Amino acid sequence: MLLCDNQGNTDRMYPQLRHAIWNGCTLADIAFPIFIIIMGMVVPYALSRRIAKSVSPLKIIVHIFGRSVGIFALGLFLNGFPLYDLSSIRIFGVLQRIALTYLVVSCVTLVILYAVKNKLIQTAIQLVLALIIITVYYLLLKHVNVPEFGKGILEQNGNLAQYIDMKYLHGHMYTPTYDPEGILGTLPAVGSALFGTVVGQILTFPTDRKMLKFLGLLAFGIITLNLANKATIVIPFNKNLWSSSFVLLTAGIAFSVVAVLYLIMDIVNYEALLKPFMALGRSSIVIYVVSELIRKTLWIIPVVDMVTKDKVNLNVWITTHYIMPWSGNILDSAYFGIVYVVLWMIIMTYFYGKDLQ
User: Fold this and answer.
1) Under DSSP, is residue 180 helix (H, G, I), strand (E, B) or coil?
2) Element (H, E) at 292
3) Which among 90, 250, 259, 280 could bridge 217 via Cys, Cβ 3.0 to 4.6 Å?
4) Which pTM value belongs to this model?
């Protein structure tokens, strides 16, 4: 997300770092759902730890609600910055979707952990719930009538998600006619987070047979990717709609990547190269908020180019003068983003260096 949101020149972004205009999937499209899945991974571990410490269910629920409200409020803070025009402020967004999915998935998981003691059954319930949610979402998109458009519209104009957002969020969306993080799309995002809880359950399963966990995660990844491919027959990959096939695709990628990381870090015990990424994960929400503030302030500072006499944004000026001379004008924007991410890694490794030893 840091890489895709901080490009040196948005006029010539590397194609894989652009979101697909509508149907399709790029590297940029999978960043946010995998963030959601990772959040879901942590939920069963965090809740189990609190339950083991005999924290009361009421206190846990209050903590969940408090964190959800705080994240949602941060999202509103970013959306309104710096003018805070309440007549047009965007209500939903990235952090708001994280807050809502965290709220729902944490409460659901808490109920499951208290009601069912067998970890395999807990995991099965979470997996079935995720599949039910994305199935229901698909049926809603395909069979609910949208006034003036009809049923089953999956184009940018006329789909059910757009209709609901236009009805209840009109004037407070990402664009005048559409919001990629709107109301209905939060439902399949909950499915993504529930897939994440399945990963978390597998990783925390009480067994020393680590290779079995690795193979289980890898098998789930392969199976889910195959399901995603078959699902495209009826609904295409679409990040804006957070389509059911897109949920399966990103879940399959997440399962597979986590399996490989688990092999490297917990079985082979070779994690030194990954410590900079671990440092980023220690304060991911804070980094995202600060990075968004930088994107909305520092990068848009106007600078007069002494050669062309044109006024350009600071990020464009830096890219043109310090990156493009050695990288050319095809990958320069991507290299700017990579350098930006590396700087964050250095900063966070410095702060968390001792904790990562």
Assistant:
1) coil
2) helix 284-296
3) 259
4) 0.92
Q: Using alpha carbons, select from 297, 285, 279, 298 the residue that is nearest to residue 344.
A: 279
**Per the structure block, which two tokens stand in for 124?**
């099965």
Per-residue pLDDT of the chain in tens (357 residues, 90 and over written 9): 888 888 888 888 888 889 999 999 999 999 999 999 999 999 999 999 999 999 999 999 999 999 999 999 999 999 999 889 999 999 999 999 999 999 999 999 999 999 999 999 999 999 999 999 999 999 999 999 999 999 999 999 999 999 999 999 999 999 999 999 999 999 999 999 999 999 999 998 888 889 999 999 999 999 999 999 999 999 999 999 999 999 999 999 999 999 999 999 889 888 777 888 888 888 888 999 999 999 989 888 888 877 777 888 888 888 888 888 888 878 889 999 999 999 999 999 888 876 765
Tokens standing for residue 110 = 């808490």
Spatial separation of the C-alpha atoms in residues 44 and 47, rounded to whole Å: 5
Q: Which two tokens stand for residue 341?
A: 């991410």
Residues 6 or more apart whose CB falls under 8 angstroms from that of 333 comprise 7, 8, 9, 10, 12, 13, 14, 17, 319
Measured CA to CA in angstroms, residue 78 lies from 84, 143, 156 at distances of 9, 36, 25
Whose tokens are 């959800």? That residue is 68
User: What angle separates helix 244-262 from helix 119-143, to the nearest 10 degrees?
Assistant: 150
Q: Are 33 and 192 in contact (CB under 8 A)?
A: yes
Token pair belonging to 285 = 């929400």
In the structure encoding, which two tokens stand for residue 128, read together? 């079935």
- Phi, psi for 32 (deg, rounded to 5): -65, -50
Amino acid letter, 11? D
